[in-house]
Amino acid sequence: MPDLTSGVASALSPLVRRIVAPNPGPFTGPGTNTYLVGVDEVAVIDPGPDDAGHVDAIVGAAMPERIKWVLLTHFHPDHLPATARLVARTGAEVLASTRRLPKDADAVVDRVLRDGDTVEGTEFGLEALATPGHAPEHLCFLLEEERTLFTGDVVLGGMYSVVNPTRGGDMAVYVATLQRLERLRLTRIAPAHGDAIDEPRVVIRDYLDHRAARAAQIAGLVAERPRTVSELVAAIYGGSDLPPELVTAAGWQVHAHLIALKADGRVTGAARTRWRPV
Ligand SMILES: [Zn+2]
Hints:
- By secondary structure, this protein is an alpha/beta fold.
- The chain folds into 2 domains: 10-198, Metallo-beta-lactamase, Chain A; 223-277, Orthogonal Bundle (Arc Repressor Mutant, subunit A).
- 31% of the residues lie in helices and 19% in strands.
- α2 (83-90) links the parallel β5 (67-71) and β6 (93-96).
- Bound molecules: zinc ion.
- Zinc ion binds next to loops.
């Protein structure tokens, strides 16, 4: 398996190369994976954080004039910010599900992709799939020639993705997206963080089972007695010494589940209150 050293382009297939950005961390794993699809005409998926060296590595791997498209899975700060710098070097067209970028973004979306729209290169077709949940604007991209799905942050290599309700995340929508992906015929998942996944169905099924188990656990804990999000996090993750940033993320995840359970009529409550059974 090609390694995940940042700054080095590694070939995952004749059509796909991966460059890991130098932003490793608890939420990004080894760093953001930037993918280059195609050789004569290149689509870059998720330019990553705004790092000059990373953009040099992308342009160096492809030659600036060959980079025709920048495809954005979503707008979180480990995916979007290098876009403006990459476009300045290449003149590439920027494609995403909406033109409404975060206020601090200096990039511009040139073309809006709807579910089912495709980007046609000389050697490949990439189909956009609307996959909200982790972020409302999230797209995955299906490389038709290889049945490889670029999943952004919907499915990750070696970890679960976080659904943060304070940044537009929606657990019920996320689970519906996973169910949709499970029905696709895929040979490989190329995630935005972590290594490629060669058993897509097994991993998507595990994600769905994990979410269902966590929802049941939270509903059970609330049924025992009313609890706040932090009390639930303590009960679920117990005495394990999670680093503080992961405690925060666990809180988002639990809160996202509570909102979904509330919509199902199983619990009631609001942020910073004790959630109760219905
Ligand atoms: Zn990410």
